[in-house]
Amino acid sequence: MFKPDLLAGKRILITGGGSGLGKSIGHRYLELGASLAICGRREHVLRETAEAFAQQFGRPVTFHVCDIRDPDAVEAMVGEIWQDGPVDVLVNNAAGNFIARTETLSHRAVDAVVGIVLHGTAYVTLACGKRWLAQSYPGCVLSIVTTYAWTGSAYVVPSAMAKAGVLAMTRSLAVEWGGRGVRLNAIAPGPFPTPGAWERLVPRPDLAKTFETRNPLGRAGEHRELADLATFMVADGSGYMNGEVVTLDGGEWLRGAGQFNFLEVMKASEWDALSHRK
Ligand code: HXC
Fold it and tell me: Does the predicted TM-score (pTM) go above 0.90?
């Protein structure tokens, strides 16, 4: 689909890049010649991914243990990465989410999700953005949101609130920073199965199939399909794309908005059992 050296010379930071969708996007970026840095909270996960990538692609992948909810840790990480030169692309992929009846959430549960998704994404974007603007360096931000950022969705309310905020940040800064060479876009993926998300978001095995096939195409997305879109959007050839959100969901939200509204089929007893499974 792309020239093999499409991303050669690009330095790319992916938050949450040690696992899941971030890892798949990182793999594709490396295939196409980029230099990669990944960050996340779990050192062993990051180390394993960085070592496997380095072995496969024959060049080092740097990793940073960083909880993006901590602005000082974010600033320290981005400062350290910048010592070797500016990052060209930031992918805001790190997220936290779980399903719950909203009335059962504690304020700490709300903060856990909003802290990672909204605050953390803002901290990393600002840390990179300030540097790009100060250096008049052309930066690019790609944030992973969801279709319920604009439709809302039952049972994942803190995530919906936070993803809506990330989308608002994307559109706002696209205008504020666009004229100074920094462009920001987002992807809203539909069901792309990952162990982390599915463990937290799919409460019953039979509902996994419902979740994955309720889109008009009747199948889940393949990670490669998402990674290719993530490549297209950060490539120089897409330099005129700014403030856009591209949906990649097989048509899911058009068929019936609110990705987790289907959990209405869950009984109260099933929710009760789930709330003990933290
Ligand atoms: C109710 C819960 C809960 C649950 C945690 N809490 N899990 N409440 N139901 N299932 C509450 C806890 O009781 C606690 O409140 C508060 O949340 C913080 O919990 P911690 O475990 O201390 O937080 P932390 O270790 O920081 O974990 C953050 C997390 C966790 C978000 C809760 O799930 C996480 O680390 N997730 C990261 C990976 C992830 O979520 N991946 C999926 C992203 S998918 P109290 O009051 O008890 O102290 C995605 C897009 C989905 O975002 C799009 C559709 C496919």
Answer: yes
Q: Is 117 a member of any domain? A: yes
pLDDT digits (tens, 9 = 90+) for 24-43: 999 999 999 999 999 999 99
For the record, the structure tokens of 259 come out as: 């990705």
Residue 94 Cα to ligand 1 midpoint, Å, equals 13
For residue 224, what are the domain limits?
11-277
Question: Is residue 3 assigned to a domain?
Answer: no
State whether residue 35 is helix, strand or coil: strand
Residues in the ligand 1 pocket, defined by CB under 6 Å: 95-98, 100, 106, 108-109, 112-113, 146, 159, 191, 196-197, 200-201, 259, 275, 278
- Residue 5 located in a structural domain: no
Ligand 1, atom 37: nearest CA belongs to which residue?
96
Residues 230 and 258: their CA atoms lie apart, in Å, by 23
What is the domain count for the chain?
Answer: 1
**Backbone CA torsion sign across 25, 30, 34, 40:** positive
Coil, strand, or helix at residue 246? Answer: strand
Using one digit for the tens of pLDDT, what is the confidence trace for 113-170? 999 999 999 999 999 999 999 999 999 999 999 999 999 999 999 999 999 999 999 9
- Residue 195 falls inside a structural domain: yes
Smallest CA separation from ligand 1 atom 35, residue: 96
CATH number at residue 101: 3.40.50.720
